[in-house]
Amino acid sequence: MIRSIKFWVGLSILGVFIFSSFGFALFYDSDVRQVQLLYDDNKNLIGGAPFEPSFMFPLGTDPLGYDISQKVLQGAKFTLIAVIAIGVFRVLFSFIVAIPFAFYLPEKIRKGLDQLLSSFYFIPLTIIAVFILSPILSEQLNAEGDEFFLYSFTERIGLEVIILTVLVVPLLGSMIGNMMAAVLKEEFIEGAKLLGASRWRIFTKHVIPHMLPKLVIVWCQQCVQVLIIFTHLGYFKLFFGGTDIDFNPIMADPPKSLSNEWSGLVGDYYIQIHANPYIALGPIIMFGIAIYAFQLIGEGFQHHLQTRHYKTMKHDSMSGKQKLVSETRLSFDFVHKRSA
Amino acid sequence: MKIIKKLFMQLFLTIISIVLISGLPDLIMNKNVSMYFQKIKVVLLDVIHLNEMTYMNQGKQRLFLEDIWSPYLYSLIILFGALFIAFCMAQLLTWCTLIMPMFIRRTVKNILTFLESLPDLLVFALVQMGIVLIFKKTGILVSNVASLGAEDRIYMMPIVCLMILPFVYFYKMMILLSEEELGKSYVEMSLAKGMRRIYVLIVHVTRNTSEGIFHFSKSVLWFMISNLLLVEVIFNIHGITHYMYSDFRPEMLAACLILLVIPFFLLYAVFEWTIVRFSKRGELV
Predict the structure, then answer these.
(1) Which residues cross the membrane (chain A) (predicted)?
(2) Is A116 in contact with B10 (Cβ distance < 8 A)?
(3) Count of CB atoms situated within 10 Å of the CB of B195
(4) What is the mean pLDDT of each run of 10 residues along chain A (340 residues)?
(5) Distance (Å, whole) CA A290 – CA B118
(6) Which of A159, A224, A235 sits opposite B121 (nearest CB)?
C-alpha cells in the first residue's frame, strides 16, 4: 500500500478529470451550455458574452457564449487518455529497445552507442513535431476548393501517437538501457548467475522487479513532457485529432479543434490574451494542473520507494535527507550491529 | 585526439539525423518512400553547399547565408543569455538556500515543485500580461511586449521568458544534488576540521556536483531550443526559428537546425573536456 499523500492527491486529480469527463458525456451528452445574453429576474439585460469567471461560469465564456469550463470538461478525456497512452507507449517501446542494449551488447560498444545517441539531445522535439505533424493534422485545400484531410481521423490520431512516441525512443531507450545495465552489475545478479540462472530467469525474476518502480517514475516524467508538447502544438494550431481550418476567403472562422480537447482550446483562445486574458488562461491552467498531478504522482511514488521498508523517519539536519531508521525486525538479525 | 575523433563522429551523426528527420514531412505528405529519398538527397546537397542555398524573401530569390547571420546571432544571444543568467542565478540562490535552516529549505523545494509544473506557455502569457498591467498602472513600459519587425530588436522580454523555467529546473536539481553531496563523509570531515560551512559548500560541493549539473543542462537546453521557437513566434521576433517557421521547407529546417546546434555542440565539447580534466586532476591528488 502506498502511504504517500502526494501520490494519492495526484492520482485523484487525474481520476476526477477523466471520470467527470466521461460522466459529462454519458449523462449530458457533452452538451456545452451557450449563454449569449444574461438577464436578471426583472428581464433587464445585465450582460453579454464573453462573461468573466464567476460562480455561474467557473472559467468564463468565450465570445460566442460557450461555457469554457464545460468545454474543458468535455475535452479532458481525450487529452488525458492520449497523454497517458503516449507515455505508456514511450516507456514500453524504450524498455523493449533497452533489453538487447543492456543484455547483449558488450560494455564498450554500449558506451560508444550511448555517446552517439546523445546527439539526439540537440534535436528539439517541439520543432520537429511541429514540422512533421502539420501535414497530417491541418486541413488542406485542393484545386476544386474542397477542404480535406490527407488521412482519416483514426489514422491521424494513430500517426500522431506513433510520431510523438518514436521521436523519443532513442534517448529514452539508451537511458533505460543504462539503468538496466546498472541493475545487471549488482552483486545478487552475480550470485544468481553462479547458481545457474538463465538470462530469461535473471530478466524476469531480478531485472523486471527492479526496473518496474523506476519505469513508473520515468512514465510520469514522460507524461509531463507530452503535456507540454501538446500545449506547444496547440499554440501552433495543430490539434490532437486534426485542425478544422475554414478556407472561406471572406471572414474565415478561426481554426477549430474537432473535439474540444485541451490543446485545441489553448490554440483557439491564446489569441485573446490581451483582450480577455481569463479566456486564454483557463485551458493553459488546466494543463498546469494536469502536469502538477503527474509530478505529484511521480514524487509520491519515489518517496514511497525510498521509505517502504521503514516505519519511522528522522531528519538529518546536515544533508536534509531523511534518515531511515529500520524498526522492522528481520527474522535473522544481529543484536550488536556496531561491533560487526 | 581520441576525444576529437569522437566529437566529430557525434557531430556527423547529429547532422545526419537532422537531415533524415527533416525529410519526414514529405514522406507523410506524399506517402511515397522513393520521394522521401529523393528529398533527402536534395536536402543533403543543399546542406553541403550551404553557401549556395537560396530562399524566397518577398518574392525574390536571395542567398540564405547572407541574410541569416544577423538573425542567427540575435537568436544565439537570446539563448545563451537566458541559459547563462538562469544558471548563475540558480547557483547563487542554491548557495543561499543551503545555509538556511531546514524548514525553509523544505518550503523552497515544495514551491519549486509547484513552479516546475507551470506550462511554459502560461509563463509567457503571465509575463506578457504582467508587463501590460505594470504599464497600465504606472505608465512605465518595462519592455516592449512585441517586436515590430525585422529591424526592431527586443532583448529583455525574450530572455526573461526563456530563463524562468530553466532557472527553476537548475535550482531544483542543484539543491537535490548538493543535498545528496552534503550527506557524504568528506563534508563531515572537513566540517570537523573546522572549515566554514559556506567554504565547503562553494568549493567542494559545487565542484563535485558540477558534472551532474552539466549532464542535466543538456536536457534543459533541449527544452530551451523548443521554447525559442515559441518565444520567437509569440513576440514576433525575427530570429532564426522565425525563418525556419515561415519558410517551412525541409532544406530550411535542416540548415537552421544545424546552424543552431553547432555552437552548443562546441560549447559542450569544451565543457566536457574541462570537466574530465578537472575531475581527473582531483583524483590524482
Answers:
(1) 7-28, 78-104, 116-137, 157-184, 215-236, 278-298
(2) yes
(3) 15
(4) 83 91 82 73 72 71 77 85 92 90 82 74 80 79 70 82 87 87 86 88 87 89 89 84 68 67 81 77 87 90 78 53 50 45
(5) 10
(6) A235
